[in-house]
Design a protein that fits this description.
The chain is α/β, with parallel strands linked by helices. 47% of the residues lie in helices and 8% in strands. Among the domains are: 2-128, HUPs (Rossmann fold, 3-Layer(aba) Sandwich); 277-429, DNA Cyclobutane Dipyrimidine Photolyase, subunit A, domain 3 (Orthogonal Bundle). Strand 1, helix 1 and strand 2 (30-37) form a beta-alpha-beta unit. The chain binds a DNA duplex (15 and 15 nucleotides) through helix 6, helix 13 and helix 18.
DNA sequence: CCTGGAGTTGTCCTA
DNA sequence: TTAGGACAACTCCAG
């Protein structure tokens, strides 16, 4: 009997899922599939909490599928090889998936597409992860925007006109699911291990007053949506539709997400290079012991240390504090943003290549539409402004007032002048 | 092609 | 105490 396949990747939900809905509407029974891609997981520790979150989300999906007389097929390996095995076991008509725009997944998907085509199987992909894909919001000459504000204006104009938008699906689409011949594996059977760090639920009640509270880390009134958007456990269409009706500032943050995604797509060199080559000649100091102190939250600046400790212990850091800690590493310690970016990538539950890279280059002043290089955050002023009660720093750095607390790794005024000089020299030599 | 205006989230100094 | 300009020019975008 012929079946269709739906391949989950970072769209881990059954509701409002365009690829899955299309597969179900096509008429044939649908086998729902997830592959732990070893090309990705081999670089991660076996107890990476993001794998735990994916596993937990798959479990939830499987329980729902069992109620619909199906079950989830979970595999681990190189996707091409796994598809090869699947085609031996099943007679497949079409493979459905939602598009992934990052460099590796895009390359993988085109290889899968070629492979399936050779076996006379169609590979259909759908827009799911964004409201607007890479080429849907561009300048009149079709070239990509490099400045956020005009991009945002064009995005909002299209959105208001309903151009290229999909409406969030209300009801679940009916269709037949196939029961997998594999039973649902344990985390250990997959070669992974349990981790205590958890992705919590998101909280949409904060959207209403987002602009008012978003800069105060102690208030803890951010939505915590980011890991859910990263892995698709929530639909971006539902969130954007709520945001556009509720809070413009919050909506703009979602537009930043798509801005950096299209930057990564059109300028993939940003993964390794400065967006602005005039900063290629910055002579980074890259002092290893200072970098370790930054990683461990031992710089002697409470707001920096609090942020890094929050990251290390929870896999999350408040957005305001991300800017402060990133700026501190690049400007005060004159450490190449690539080191900081890699560290955040290893720790953040909501790690997204486009946003992490875009925001690190923003903090370093090397990115497109980045902070001007002479804007150097003063970690003490930032602390006074955004954590005036000391509640946030006190929570993560309880020893901050005791003699045991370290002396600052570098004096602010000295570091500021040193950074300005390093950036000046780079620009002059360019 | 030319041109004017604008550009996520700051800080510091001076009057 | 507080408001305003300098930082240092540049790139991008729209008309």
């Amino acid at each position: 009997m012929k079946i269709n396949l739906f391949w989950f990747r970072r769209d881990l939900r059954l509701d409002d899922n365009p690829g899955l809905d299309s597969a179900l509407m096509a008429g044939l029974p649908v086998l729902v599939l997830f592959i732990f891609d070893t090309n990705i997981t081999e670089d991660l520790p076996p107890d990476d909490p993001r794998i735990g979150f994916i596993y937990e989300s798959l479990g939830k999906i499987n329980r729902e599928l069992v109620l619909k007389n199906g079950s989830l097929c979970i595999l681990k390996g190189d996707p091409l090889e796994e598809f090869g095995k699947l085609l031996q076991a099943y007679s497949v008509d079409t493979v459905y998936a939602n598009r992934d725009y990052e460099p590796y997944p895009a390359e993988r998907d085109s290889a899968v597409s070629v492979f399936l085509k050779k076996h006379n199987i169609r590979f259909l992909t759908f827009k799911d992860h964004v409201i607007y894909e890479k080429d849907e919001v561009v300048k009149q000459d079709k070239s990509p925007y490099r400045v956020f504000t005009p991009y945002k204006n064009a995005w909002l104009k299209r959105f208001a006109a309903g151009l290229n938008t999909q409406q969030p699906a209300g009801e679940a689409v009916e269709g037949d699911f196939v029961k997998s011949s594999h039973s649902f594996p344990s985390l250990e059977q997959l070669g992974f291990r349990e981790n205590q760090t958890r992705v919590g639920p998101y909280d949409l009640s904060v959207i209403k007053d987002y602009g008012k509270y978003r800069n105060f880390p102690a208030a803890d009134r951010t939505s915590r949506l980011s890991p859910h958007l990263r892995f698709g456990t929530v639909s971006i269409r539902k969130i954007v539709s709520l945001a556009s009706a509720t809070n413009q500032v919050f909506l703009e943050e979602l537009i930043w997400r798509e801005f950096f995604m299209q930057i990564l797509f059109h300028f993939p060199a940003v993964v390794t290079d400065n967006f602005r080559p005039s900063f290629n000649r910055i002579r980074w100091r890259n002092n290893e012991s200072e970098f370790r102190r930054w990683c461990n939250g031992e710089t002697g600046y409470p707001i920096v240390d609090a942020g890094m400790r929050q990251l290390n212990l929870t896999g999350f850091m408040h957005n305001r504090v991300r800017m402060i800690t990133a700026g501190f590493l690049c400007k005060h310690l004159l450490t190449d943003w690539r080191f900081g970016e890699a560290y955040f990538a290893s720790k953040l539950l909501d790690y997204e290549l486009s946003s992490n890279n875009g925001n690190w280059q923003w903090a370093a002043g090397t990115g497109c539409d980045a902070a001007q290089y002479f804007r150097i955050f003063n970690p003490l002023t930032q602390e006074r402004k955004f954590d005036p009660s000391g509640e946030y720093t006190g929570k993560w750095v309880p020893e901050k007032r005791s003699p045991a607390y370290q002396a600052p790794v570098v004096d602010h005024t000295f570091a500021r002048e040193r950074a300005m000089e390093a950036y000046h020299i780079s620009m002059k030599e360019f």
